[in-house]
Amino acid sequence: MSWKEMAELLRQPLFTVGKTEVSIASMAWILALFVVLIIVSRFIRRILRTQLLKHTKMDIGLQYLISRIVGYVVLVLGLIIGLETIGVNFSSLAVIGGALGVGIGFGLQNIVHNFVSGLIIMGERAIQVGDRVDVGGTLGEVIRVGARSTSVRTNDNVVIILPNSEFVSNRVINWSHMGDQNVRLRIPVGVSYGSDPREVERILLEVAAASSNVLKDPAPQVIFLAFGESSLDFELRVWTADMTRRPGVLKSDLYFAIWDRLKAAGIEIPFPQRYLHIKEPVRVEIEAGQSGPA
Questions:
Q1: Helix crossing, 3-10 with 24-47: angle to 10°?
Q2: Which residues pair with 174 in a beta bridge?
Q3: For 180, phi and psi rounded to 5 degrees?
Q4: pTM tops 0.70
Q5: Please, are residues 188 and 254 in contact by the beta-carbon 8 Å criterion?
Q6: Phi and psi dihedrals of 131, rounded to 5?
Q7: Cα angle vertex 167, ends 162, 249, to 5°?
Q8: Are 183 and 244 in contact (CB under 8 A)?
Q9: Cα separations (Å) of 110 from 142, 149, 236?
Q10: 8 Å CB contact between 230 and 191
Q11: Cα(252)–Cα(5) distance, rounded to whole angstroms?
Q12: Per residue in 181-207, pLDDT tens?
């Protein structure tokens, strides 16, 4: 088979959509066009984010949003122009739109939901790249906000890909929203009933003041919570900006210091105890011929 005959074969229409004939060559052209547009779109986004928008006063989240929107616009416009070049009649795409509507109704709800959620996230800017978030127990730093999913890197250096719908329909804790990195941590402490509450307060405040990772303003605070079942319950409240991404480490350091200081002061940290009191047995007499107690 010659090249001319092969070219004619590839141009033979396989089926018709509306008034547009679809052949192997046209499908290959559309596929190649789509791949090229994706590459160009990503290249433009990278140039905008790393070269142009980097030198502006916009925050990282807004820079990311603008680069993504420009990338999508380039992709859509390039696809429309490319399809018109090969003679695709867009009025005939109403049939495809109807078919896609049926497909969305049955099998693409989650994809569309996540895509719309991604647009909402980018538009409201409630979640931005670099934010520290907690979504359904997943705690980490947002490293990417995509059209369908958002990537979060945990403290274990594990990247978790979450559907965008979880950020819209669920409760999200954003530890660094609006650029404020200050976070308050709560350290519960229980001591025995024989302890002096004022001495406990003084020790806890001294422990907080001795930590370089605890902010002096706002100042640490000790709250006497309650008279517990087996302990006097306190709560040390401290603010930090450096340990926002590692709150567990700061809590551990404070607990170590609290333990050492309370032990040195002779203050006991109790644990729940239960005492079982058994009364003296009661004597029961049973008369002859009776099956039960007299």
A1: 80
A2: 133
A3: -90, 115
A4: no
A5: no
A6: -75, 150
A7: 75
A8: yes
A9: 22, 11, 44
A10: no
A11: 76
A12: 788 899 999 999 989 999 999 999 999
What is the DSSP-derived secondary structure letter of residue 284?
-
Give the three-state DSSP class for 23: strand
d(C-alpha 226, C-alpha 228), whole Å:
6
Q: What domains lie within the chain, and their CATH numbers? A: 3-107 (1.10.287), 124-177 (2.30.30.60), 183-264 (3.30.70.100)
pLDDT at residue 86 is higher than 70? no
Least confident of 5-14, 19-28, 87-96, 227-236: 87-96
Residue 45, C-beta contacts closer than 8 angstroms, at least 6 positions apart: 67, 68, 70, 71
DSSP β-bridge partners for residue 223: 235
Cis previous bond, 218, omega within 30: yes
Contact 129, 143 (CB under 8 A): yes
Cα-based angle 20, 25, 27 (whole degrees, multiple of 5): 65
SS3 140: strand
Instruction: State phi, psi for 86 to the nearest 5 degrees.
Output: -90, 5
Q: Answer yes or no: are the C-beta atoms of 145 and 129 closer than 8 Å.
A: yes
What tokens appear for 226 in the block? Answer: 């309650």
C-alpha 90: how far from its chain's center?
40
Provide the phi-psi class of 179: left if phi over 0, else alpha when psi is between -120 and 50, else beta.
left
Entry field: residues in the chain: 294
Helix (H, G, I), strand (E, B) or coil at 148: coil
Q: How far apart are CA 136 and CA 144, in angstroms?
A: 18
> SS3 for 153?
strand
Residues ≥6 apart with Cβ < 8 Å to 138: 152, 154, 160, 162
Q: What is the pLDDT of residues 16-46, one digit of tens each?
A: 655 566 667 677 777 888 888 888 888 888 8
Q: d(Cα 102, Cα 134) in Å, to the nearest integer?
A: 36
